[in-house]
């Protein structure tokens, strides 16, 4: 396995890019440590697949370097980078048995049959497909085909990194959780460096120790799932992660505080300089409380969704939509209510970026 370092990386599909808008990937500096589980998370078109193709060697970046354990591999073809890749659609040989599919990457590199048997048996046990080893791959269900595709990526012990490009896209929703759990278990057992590319926040947050969130060719935040949820560095992260996402409300900053609908809102702590640029308040629905006691922000309930575990209340205040997640009783559509924000979780953003710091709340 290897540490992977991206240094001053940029990429454009144009021969003569003239501005940042011409780059599919803006400047990226990033290090993935040996043996870690990482995810690249973002919407379609954000640049995550471009970045994956650059790491794998399918694309040569316009600028910058890719280092595997301090070895510059920027100009090396995929075959010289010693990587394994699992794609959206299972890459297996339907005419071969499961055993021969798992053995193929090892036999292709001249490993002796004793080594092949040892590794295939070990991976089959991890994947829980030992009873399928003599089955032709064409007879497998889609989820088991993808299991074998994953196994082909994991069977070699000499790879620098295993990369997964949206591997659960074609899997039925009720089976996805099984494969997500299995993949996490496999990482813990084989300790391989793994990079998982997806637009699905659930897949990223349940698999990765560190998640890289991308938007418009840039990295907007790197953090643990808890860090991304509790303290989004950018309003995009707040929107993209969570269901529903973070409430983002326009506000005015004056007298050292933030005001929404004419009401001063208590913030988590001191503010950075926000004299220039647009300011917004960010608060997760989980930290919005709803009452009818006249204390807090006046609002009316537009609708209430009961999703079993909790209820999602959508309220309107000063023409802004605000979500609250409640357990137990909830108001009805059309009710007049009051909303209160948990101060330690209420943050200020300037031009999209976090501009408040933890500490004694600002009243």
| CATH domain topology of the largest domain | Rossmann fold
CATH class value of the largest domain: Alpha Beta
Averaged pLDDT, please?
A: 91
Shape estimate:
globular
The total tally of domains equals 2
The total of helices stands at 8
First-residue to last-residue Cα separation: 50 Å
Q: Indicate the multimeric state.
A: single chain
**What share of the residues does DSSP label as strand, in percent?**
25-35%
Number of strands: 22
Indicate the low-confidence ranges by residue numbers.
none
User: Which structural class should the secondary elements be placed in?
Assistant: alpha+beta
> Could you state the order of secondary-structure elements as H and E?
EEEHEEEHHHEHEHEEHHEEEEEEEEEEEE
Determine the fraction of residues in helical runs and give it as a percent range: 10-25%
What's the architecture of the largest domain, going by CATH?
3-Layer(aba) Sandwich
Q: What integer value in Å does the Rg equal?
A: 24 Å
Biggest sheet descriptor: 6 strands, mixed
Largest beta sheet: what is the strand line-up? 6-7-8-3-9-10
Task: Describe the overall structure.
- With 363 residues, the chain is α+β, with helices and mostly antiparallel strands.
- The chain folds into two domains: 4-230, P-loop containing nucleotide triphosphate hydrolases (Rossmann fold, 3-Layer(aba) Sandwich), CATH 3.40.50.300; 245-354, Nucleic acid-binding proteins (OB fold (Dihydrolipoamide Acetyltransferase, E2P), Beta Barrel).
- 23% of the residues lie in helices and 31% in strands.
- It has eight helices and 22 strands.
- It has helices at 48-56, 98-107, 113-127, 142-154, 173-190, 201-207, 225-230, 235-240, and strands at 4-11, 25-32, 37-41, 63-68, 71-72, 83-86, 161-165, 194-198, 210-215, 218-223, 247-250, 252-254, 257-260, 263-265, 279-283, 288-291, 297-306, 311-317, 320-326, 336-341, 347-350, 353-354.
- The strands form five sheets. The protein has a six-stranded mixed β-sheet with strand order 6-7-8-3-9-10, sandwiched between helices. Strands 16-20-17-18-19 form a five-stranded antiparallel β-sheet, with no helix packed on it.
- The mean pLDDT is 91.
